[in-house]
Specification:
2 copies of one chain form a homodimer. By secondary structure, the first copy, chain A, is an alpha+beta fold. The first copy, chain A, has 8 helices and 10 strands. The radius of gyration of chain A is 19 Å and the shape is elongated. The structure holds a DNA duplex (30 and 30 nucleotides).
Chain lengths: 231, 231
DNA sequence: AGAGCCTTATGATAATTATCACTATCTAAT
DNA sequence: ATTAGATAGTGATAATTATCATAAGGCTCT
């Protein structure tokens, strides 16, 4: 067993406002009564592509990647989820099995609801379902648009984009520890590991970033933005 | 005015079963009472990126493309919608404006519901909302996965994939008229027009397909499938 | 019919990216 | 500590794709 199961009291849980604004106190109790939290350490697999979907998961703490393996051992990273994102988001209402694998990139805590309870609630409370639908379509829209953005850049622009993505969107700081390997960057932007490494080295030589292993410091952000936009 | 507005009787409309299986006859009447159909000729723009979202649209007849223009004049095609697909699908519940443009590739008929009526219905009928959510997440999943598939192929594989996509998924025949130009194929698969043309010529020279302008005949389908899969 | 514009087409060349080969560094496990 | 295996890093070369140039064919508009 690789997770702990402390019950948390939803009355004081900030997640309540984010997810269940149209759920009454009574309903909330039903939902939270069956809620558990699971914590995963960096690198642990949370869900496997193809696993049956039994739970409804959302991020409480940490960072995870959603990925899909294509044939042999080539993985593609689809997106990253941070606190308050749904994890089993994409297929949870339209598929019997998970379409993606989910892996912890940092020590992460996931809140787990029984999917059937959520589904039942969704069938009787339309406002709840509406909220859910809005959040799902926002999240999938973001994935689709992020993909479009990456695809129209070339190597340097893509690498620059990823650095800015972590700096601006995930960490909100210009100095951070990369939560993923060079290979995973490559899997996210659709380039080879070698070229990702080469590009990072080039940014370093051009004094755009400083690199200490996985620690990145963005020195010249406007330059990086310009590369991201124009190549 | 570039559309006709014949009311149609929903009692006998096959769309009823597809979209509104959890809506009562009375509710159906409310919805259909405000329904109109719009027809567009090949090439006509149905929606513009950035337009405010007032309607809820779905395909009754024809074929459309969803696209996004990135800066200058470079377009990216996101997906194609055929009958019974939602058109204003992606952003309709999560954005005030359309995130994509929609253009008719063939003469097309679109059913138009007032978005507020649909939203009101969604807020009071949870089963209806559930149905909608399932359909939305199915459709967006399909877009995301199709993108992943395309991105891991190279030029020849991508072109082969597109041909098979139209043959298998859109027309269900091995002989069909391409609904899009070579340039649009390029915008869909993220390659240049010249290389798309070159690749098609190469397939023709290798007796994999026959080309008469926009008319395509797939001669050696297993070969095309092999190229799509392995390059 | 002819002018202008877009699409299709093909070739030559340049740019970009992948592959292969080899080291170095780091991490986990004994 | 020491080895094994993954990750990071660099260079040379090959493969892939883009760019530029140029031309033929279609289409629309007058």
């Amino acid at each position: 067993m690789n997770y702990k199961t402390p019950k948390c009291s939803c009355e004081q849980c900030q997640l309540k406002n984010l997810f269940f604004s149209h759920v009454s106190e009574d309903e909330l109790f039903d939902i939270c009564d069956i809620k558990e939290e699971r914590t995963y350490t960096k690198g642990q697999r949370i869900l496997n592509e193809g696993d049956p979907i039994d739970d409804f998961l959302y991020m409480k703490e940490g960072l995870v990647k959603l990925s899909k393996s294509s044939g042999e051992q080539k993985d593609q990273i689809i997106s990253f989820s941070k606190p308050f994102d749904f994890v089993s988001l994409l297929s949870v209402f339209s598929s019997k099995v998970h379409m993606y694998s989910v892996t912890a990139l940092e020590d992460s805590t996931v809140c787990v609801l029984d999917l059937n309870v959520v589904k039942n609630k969704a069938q009787e409370n339309a406002m709840f379902t509406m909220d859910m639908m809005v959040r799902i379509s926002e999240a999938t829209d973001k994935i689709i648009i992020e993909n479009l953005i990456i695809r129209r850049k070339q190597l340097k622009g893509r690498v620059a984009h990823v650095l800015l993505y972590f700096a601006n969107y995930i960490y909100e700081r210009d100095e951070f520890e990369l939560p993923i390997s060079r290979r995973e960057i490559a899997e996210y932007i659709g380039m080879t590991t070698e070229n990702v490494i080469r590009t990072l080295s080039e940014f370093r030589k051009d004094n755009i970033i400083k690199i200490f292993g996985k620690d990145i410091l963005i020195v010249d952000k406007s330059r990086l933005e310009s590369i991201s936009e124009f190549g």
